[in-house]
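Many introductory courses stop at the sequence. We go one step further.
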Amino acid sequence: MTFQAEDEIAAMGAAIGAAYGGAVAVTASSGPGIALKGEAIGLAVMTELPVVILNVQRGGPSTGLPTKTEQSDLLQAVYGRNGESPIAVLAAKSPGDTFYCAVEAVKIATRYMVPVMLLSDGYIANGSEPWPLPNLATLPRFDVIHRTDPTGYFVYERDPRTLARAWVIPGTPGLEHRIGGIEKDALTGNISYAPENHEKQTHVRAEKVQRIAQDVGELDLAGAESGDVLIVGWGGTFGSLRQAQQALAAQGKSVSHAHVKWLSPMEPGLAKIIKNFKHVLVAELNMGQLRQLLRAEFLIDCVGLNKIQGMPFKVREVQDAVEKLLGAAPTVTPSPESTQPLASA
């Protein structure tokens, strides 16, 4: 069922209602609309309902560049709600990849009972690529279970592996329950203002998102797991970054490219290799949002390649940035319209 709501707030509320009723719930917008959805996304965090939120990023702030690409909603996706309200965040790298990322988002949302935000961008949304239709019968399956056994049921009793609470369709005999936006007792689901309970529940909701890492696949890495320069990117910059890495590697340069899909939790594969390189270049179409997250997470001095023109990276721009880090003069003098100078903070 597709429902065109009167505004973004109503759309997010309807998605929460659909999830409460046991359906796969998806709602979509771009940055300003995601801001309007923010309060209700927090409600989905507190009620622990599986909702998928699509954010097709565009230039901002406000209406900004409504038809141009940007990657400036990353911090909004990770932190853009009141209180301690972590959600899962992943990003597609190409038009065809959005299909598989959408499947992954639904799997994680229903397995961990958590809102999941899938980031796209204007370059992906307006782009195209040859995409072979998948054989649906061969896609990895995942089970979605609505609990029906009332024996020993507590609303916030959790799965020991995922920390997810049981998904129960309202009105199931013996499993009638209430959920809402006020803090809940860690077992019964009753409203609780107990200080220790709130702290416990806050940590549990955060830990649940971190445990998603145990279901994250291999890091998308081209090149060796150590070397001189690691290019780190995410989202629709994939093609430019991967082609630049391949060209530099063909010249004998020790350059690798890690393209991050999972941003919350951060991909565990990145943690294993990021400190094995002399330089880390974070290329993104914003002022350095992933760079901030990586510096905070890994305590390393990442260098940024940032472009905020509503346009994707050119391969040559990425190559020039890497060559600067390697100490070689760029072969092409950047034009006035080219990327901003490298920044380390």
